[in-house]
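User: Could you check the structure of this?
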Amino acid sequence: MFEPRSAFVDAGNVRLHYLEWDPAYAHMSMADPDVAPDYGEATDDIPVVLLHGLAATADTWRLTAEYLYPRHPLLAFDLRGHGSSAQPESGYDPKTVAEDIISGMAALGLGQVAVVGHGWGARVALVLAARHPALVSHLVLVDCPHVEPRHWPGMTRERFIREKVSSVLYPSRAAYLEALRAEMPFTWTPEIEPIVLTYIRDLPDGTVQERLRPEQQCAIRESLWEDRALTYYGKLSCPVLLVPAADRPLPGEEPPERLEHADEFAAAKGQMAAQVARAIQNCSVLWMPDTAHDIQLQHPQALGEAIVKFLQE
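Assistant: Sure, the predicted structure tokens are below.
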């Protein structure tokens, strides 16, 4: 497995950590990790910017990157408040986070790129592409939450903001891993463990906690409640690939009446993916039924190869 280069970039008023994969620059990365490569002169393959999901880190892309970097230079950012990036008190709405990435790209000398986002990172990628169409050649939205939470049956603002926020202190890393295994409904592989351990930090008393603080989680979820994601799709001008963890809805199939269980959310995701695909002028969909939200961990090869094929088309 090719080890990515780890570095930092000042992106406006926030310092972002990122991982960079490119075999052509492996010797440079080892010689001086503070020297960023000049992508514009070295390769005709368009760089790919990878944005992780809520409470994850850039490391979540390590498995998928194995199938991407032989063809494209890759940069995966720790988004504001996540991983080793700065944790300012504010600025956790999709527009501000998207502008962080734009500033980071400019500081690294990046021009037009392909953008791949997962989950919440896909919402950030969507906003980025809609606001800066000249800078995005292709857009890949991996299990993007197209369904605006205000439209979820029975959902209230307060419930959405507070319901899923994690403030759990785990007694050890082993306890955290055990809890995560129970949440992930797919086969756990040895390669996943070091990735998800980057999602947490060790506290002085030996306990561990997610790096993304509870108040930041609340700020992100509040911004998602206020955000009007459906207004962005019609503004996209680049080719778009949707990768929902859902099956293609059947003709005439009605959306679920409630959203409480995994199968109901999967059905809703399928319905919304089909709806937004019709609103995008150049869109294709890779349906991935019987798949968990973390497609990049469960099916990294299928996802990586699909992205490479999409970028070649």
